[in-house]
Amino acid sequence: MSNNGFHGYRGEELPLSGITVVDLTQIVAGPFATMTFGDLGAEVIKVEAVGRGDRCRNIDPIPEYFDAVNRNKRSVGIDLKSEAGQRIVREMVSDADVFVESTKPGRIESYNLSYEELREVNPELVYCSITGFGTDSPYENLPAWDMLVQAMSGAMSMTGEEDGPPVWSGLPSGDLIASMYAVQSVLAALFARERGSIRTEWIEVPMLDAAISWLTVRAGYTFGTGEPFPRSGDHHPSLAPFGVFDCNGDRLVIAAGTPSLWRDFCSVIGREDLLADDRFSTMSDRGENVEVLTEIIEAELATDSSERWVERLQAADVPAGPIHDTETVWEDPHVRKRNLHRVMERPDRQDADVIDHPVHFSALATQLATPPERLGESSAELLARYGYDGEDIERLVEEGVVE
What we know:
Blueprint: E1 20-24, H1 29-39, E2 43-49, H2 64-67, E3 74-78, H3 83-94, E4 98-101, H4 107-110, H5 115-121, E5 126-131, H6 146-153, H7 173-195, E6 201-206, H8 207-213, H9 216-225, E7 242-247, E8 250-255, H10 259-268, H11 283-288, H12 290-301, H13 306-315, E9 320-322, H14 333-337, E10 341-344, E11 352-355, H15 379-385, H16 390-398
């Protein structure tokens, strides 16, 4: 399944065609990164534990949780505690371009698959470690989960109502931030290798550092004021109208914080008189008087449905929209037109629901080629590629080295 030709994008060449990635990651951060490599055309060999596989295979709902971040990969089950299993992975790495791991501190060394060992096998390897806190952190050995990273990075402190407790984001933000840094850093290293600037590289992506880097303008607030960025619930702390507004018990988002958008917004709701109100003259004034402004706006919104208000505001190019959930978003006209919800057929079992790759090129392509596989679905085929005959493979299966 491909998006070639989608909305005028007619590229055929996959940007990472010919690149092989050996993937020793699980849950979300690593798998989302390696799935992205697969979408871009790389061959991704997903190494999973015999008998268990990626831990997210057992997180409900099954198999949808796993499927969401594991398309475009070939699954091979290997016992990495065994010398035979370690030897298989080294053979795969010897012919690969990239190795990505997200194991617990010390675990990769116990598998004899550290960067120092694998660069001896493959002197041109790009090796990426996704960690919780990094090798020189006082928290180095602390297991890192998304909620912990959101809390320790400061991200959670900004989420929630003004007078309420910090709230965990519904998205696995800490995982996804690290994942994106892993993708861009591996691509940068591959480019540098291609250019001849380097021969090999080891990359470390600590989840906490990555999440802290995304504080950006929120950190700028603190650098400028000496105060923590405030929780402000569903409204912006300094821009108005900018937030969630009630409309007859329904809710919509309006983001009209700039002077021009403020003028257009007042015109749409038929309240041009607000433009002459001293309480709302400037962005600062509107921010300081946000409560009374919200009352005025919601009184006007109550005269019609949220759907009609969204239509009017969008027609005037005022940023406004409904608040979808993970069920209703797929019915949005934008989402339907761009075919973002895709189904990858699996003839021998339940089809896989996935989200299409969001980036489109003019001369290149992305792909949805391989549906998420069963644990070890490609083991025999991949082992044969690396010189194992049928008897070898049968013996390794019997010994529990592969699945």
